[in-house]
Amino acid sequence: MIDLTQFSDNNIIYSLAIKLNRYFEKPMTVDLERLIELLIRAIKNRKNIVKATYLLSIIAEYRASYIKEEHIQFLKRLMEWDHSKIRTNISIILGAYCFFHADELTKMDNVSMVIKLVSDDDPHVVDNAVLYLLKINEENPVYFSHPPILRMLLNTVATIQDKHVRKDLHNIISSQPDLFLDQLSLLTPKSPTVMKKTDLTVYSKFKGMSIEKAFREYFNRIKNENTLYIPCILHSTLHQYLIEFSDKELEAFFDRNHRISLDTIYDYFEPVCTTPPQARKIMRLLVHRCYLRGYYSENDYYYPPAYFAKILFMTFEGEGRVKLDDFSHFPSKFLRHGLEEVLRVYHLELVRNTRNSIVYSFSHLITHLSEESNKRFYLDLSQWFKHFSHKDYQKIESELLERNQIIKQYHTDQQYLTITGKNHLITYLTHSKALGYFSAYDVSEKVGIPVEIVINFFKNHTEPNIGVYSTHFTEFFYNKYITKLIKAYGIKSVIKKLSRKLKKAPEILQEELNRNRLAIIQEIMDSKKISLSKYSDKLGIGQKDLKNLLNNMKLFYVQLGDILLFDQEKINAEKRSIKKSIVELVDQEGMVDIKESSFRLSNIICYEITRELIEDGEIRGILYPNEQFEGYTFLSEEQVEALFEAHKYKISLPELFPEKAIYLEAEKT
After folding, report:
1. Which residues, in sequence order, are CB contacts of 51 under 8 Å at separation 6+?
2. Is pTM beyond 0.90 here?
3. Is residue 32 within 8 Å of 59, Cβ to Cβ?
């Protein structure tokens, strides 16, 4: 019977406790399933969870068949709460449920949960978990033989400190029909090596069957994926043995960064062999069956894969390559695996020559070629093109291109222009503008860059209209240089000499020069702004001549330093600004020099602006050409009167305005 006094503080739980008491007195009078649902609902609504789970634990202990899987899944989530009594009650419910279903492997997740509770911090939870594990094992001894469950029990034993709990779990595990080698190692963790030797001859006599049949029967009983097996004859008695090894233990011992001597190997195998020759035989069997991936040499040394990969890696680091003939005393398969290990462990990309006799470190090779590229004007990759497969050569070429060590668009066959070479050619081009011409043959002969690369580079770095090329693009003369020659020797003489040098007919050369000039002028007309220095160089004329050309073409501009703007809005804005400035200067000084150097518009526009101001009456005076600076000068009426006053006894216009042509406008009165 349940003591109802402990439930008096909550009417709902109290009524449910009364019903549960009534059920145990008269089961037919109470719907237990309904009662369980009401208790679950109370827990979900946070109604006195401690006492609700307590009532459920009583039901689970006595009527576990009424507890459903959905109830268990809900209650398992409550185990995350930090409440001792709630977790204790749920551990009873979970244990009782698993005990009731001990013959169902489908409930393994719930049993796993019970096993996890053995490691709980609450001793009451631990006691309940161990109690039900013992009851499950007593009810169904083979239940825990299921590999996942047994593995979980073994892992749990290794973490438990309480000696009583460890003993209970040890008893459960030990009662299982078969323990394999890896499981034995967990129960005996202090054992330095885990290996086992079985005399199959003795075992077959004990079983009364042939050795072959005894081997199959024994092997099928003990085989496990974590264990390695070697049948062999070790003694002069010719008895056959089956030697079992833990694969992890074996791998851990032999996975070293140095070679291992037979003496060390014998010490390790001492539990299963009595002489060094037996240890040698076991080693060869392990390597032959690929349980060990290293190499056991004739002089009784074992070379682990990691150690051999380290040797290869150090060779790559020191020499940048491995000559396979230098390692011919190792099996080819082992050597191949060693190279794969270098790639896997050290992430060293490798490339092979076409004869497969030398393996190169890709990064080392690229570093070497990059250093060569930095020292040379061009890089010749033709030897590597022959040395490597097409795929590997492309990989090398792509890497050099990506690192900007070579320039893809400037090459001939496998010879590439380098950044160093590019900079040198750019410097040469810059200097050639001062000379007025350049020759691809001269550059090629001087620095050793293939002439095809030089021609291609110069063509791509020379604007087509700034000069003329020879027929085969080997020589080039700038417009500026040609204009200078024409001024010195005359157009016919220059055209005649250039036509012979460039191997072009005179009329074709003349047409090309005219076409270049018209193309540059069209560029200017199509532009919103130009560089004065750049386009004067392109046309081969002075900056003053270019501005005169623009004025003659009625192509007006605003000059901002070296930039000429053809934007009409900006020109109009500048006109307004100049008008204002002229008016202010006239008011202040009475005389204004109208010239391009003072204002950012051409002389013609400045003259027109001043004329507009006179016509509009904004300024009054005389405007006349001033040959001293190729512009105009404006004198206000006051300034003119002052000049007349200063020379009132003798009026002479040449004296007033020496060397100036005077244009006077007479007003009708």
Report:
1. 6, 7, 10, 13, 17
2. no
3. yes
